[in-house]
Write a structure and sequence with these properties.
Layout lengths: L3 H16 L9 H34 L4 E6 L4 E4 L12 H17 L4 E7 L5 E12 L2 E11 L1 H37 L3 H33 L6 E4 H18 L3 E4 L7 E4 L1 H17 L6 E9 L2 E8 L21 H7 L5 H11 L3 E7 L3 E8 L23
Parallel strand pairs: 7-9
Antiparallel strand pairs: 1-2, 1-5, 3-4, 4-5, 6-8, 9-10, 10-12, 11-12
Helix pairs in contact: 1-2, 4-5, 5-9, 6-7, 7-9
Length: 401
Amino acid sequence: MLRGSRLSTLIEQLAARLDGRPATGGDGVAAALTRLEAAVAACAAEQQAAAAHSSRLAVALGHVSEAVVLADEHGEIVFRNASAEAYAGARHGNALVERTLVDLLGRAIAGQQGEEPLELWGPPRRTLVLSARPLRAGGSVVGAVAMVEDVSEKRRLDAVRRDFVANIGHELKTPVGALSLLSEALEDAVDVEEFRRLTASMQREALRLGQIIDDLLDLSRIEAEETPVREPVPVHLLVDQAADRIRTAADHQGILLDVAQITPMLTVLGDRRQLVNALDNLLENAVKYSDEGSVVRVSAWLEDGLVALAVEDHGVGIPTRDLERIFERFYRVDRARARDTGGTGLGLSIVRHIAHNHGGEVHVVSREGEGTTFTLTLPPGPPASPPAPPAPPRAPAQAAG
């Protein structure tokens, strides 16, 4: 057995080691035990603080949208946030991401920082950027961190911006160039009929240029109004107002505009001006791409808790390859026909932004050569009050006898 002095010395040495201080002479077993308890309590408090700190870091990294993976100095993965869990034990494209992550982490443990882009064809198609860097402490590598950033939306927006600049330059160049040529021809015109023909052409090109500018201003304003004023708007009034705008053009082209009966109690929440603009663009598009003698039908109903407004035509239809792109700015399926009808290629983009501003969506179903149906779905508003019944006719007054 150990004697009291020897036991107190050993306890004192252990307490000093835990407490990180030099050992002192023995003061008895009780005093040594007290110091040992204090040292153990201090160590426990430090461990709890470290655990709480690690927990906070794990929670914070869990809210990071990018995937984050940590590895120790041996290359063993010790932490994944929620976004990175999708790649652990995955298949297909995500399995390629996991292999690339492990490779980058291995190189980072060796002290090499690296980055590698990955194109995953999906569906859906994604563009990822994987990167890893070593973690150093005291001049030595103690681990590595890797990240996976999804840059698909950023690349798409960059492409949209490039296409927008190219398309707007092309669209503005056409009428401006035509006005320049017409003005030159006008200088040499001596015949009155030729003069009138040239000035009429100049007016058409000026109107086309003005329409492009007006649509651009409309699109810019709609994009800025991400949260438009929301008020209950009767759907039948929206449809009637949009139909009245396009009726003259439909009659001129010999197209029948068929407006279905819509209950007056059906409403949507939104900005009346924007919603009429969206329906007007859908109707204008349907009339432009329909043949003479065909029918364009407008209807609305309540389905699955949403208000659906449909514009159906029996025109040229849209090829399947173009369906995904028709809502892009300036994208037009038939550019030759668009020039004849005066389209700017911004109408459907305006419709999509109005739908998103109102918490809704726009869908399209089309078959080439058979026709197209655009359906705008929007959150419903409170039912409108039913119209008051007409007053009974007054009895004719009897003449005095």
